[in-house]
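Hi support team,

I submitted a single chain yesterday and got back a structure, but I'm not sure I'm reading the token output correctly. Could someone confirm the output below corresponds to the sequence I sent? I've pasted both exactly as they appear in my results page.

Thanks,
R.
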Amino acid sequence: MAPTPTPTPESQLLATVQAATTSALARSSTPELRAMLADISIGLTSAQALAAPKLFQLTHRLGEREVVKLLVVILRAFVDSLRVKEKPDAADLIELAGTLAQTYTHDSLKDIILALKEARTQGTNFFQALDVSTLYRLLTEYFDRKARYLEHRHLDQKATGASTEATAVQLLGQAAPRMLEHVAQQIPSDHPNAAALRQKLSITKARETRGLITPEQAAEQRAEARQATQRKERADW
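Hi R., thanks for writing in. Yes, this is the structure output for that exact sequence:
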């Protein structure tokens, strides 16, 4: 019997969220939920957030309500982690979660987690108050940074691709003359002077190797051999 796989923080979070109502999740977070989100955020990078399932994919798989509930949990945990006097209430968070689900359809839950993590760890000053407009601004700033990250990555990939292509063209340019020479020196087996031409090429190679003729003279003799392989159409050939 195969061992039962260990639940991931993501699967545990989803199971907990599915068992609760949206309003209950929006009113307050629990230490367990915050611990799950903290576990997901450990070592989280922009590349990982980019590769994570998008909100529209989760909506298709889980339903819009469950996606909104997941967003509510993330927002509530962030709000509860801040020591400010004025905070958004449950209705504010549910409304914001619905807006995010409709606005950032091609981004991921991990994008939202990373955005709020960066806002908290980079020393954002909330001046003892946090409202929905501030939350939305923090997320907008994150997605602006993400857009720049994607643009720079695209330019880097484009530059790398151009460099690779240039190298390939250069190598092909270096190899082409040798390839053409090799093909040109393949004497047809039905050529009436095939044996003599092969012997001529062998002698040329041997004389060049021994230094009896210069590379230029060797190239000239090979050119003569190539010329000799070009036959006119004749009935007796």
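A quick pointer for reading it: Residues 207 and 213 are 6 Å apart (CA to CA). Let us know if anything else looks off.

Best,
Support desk
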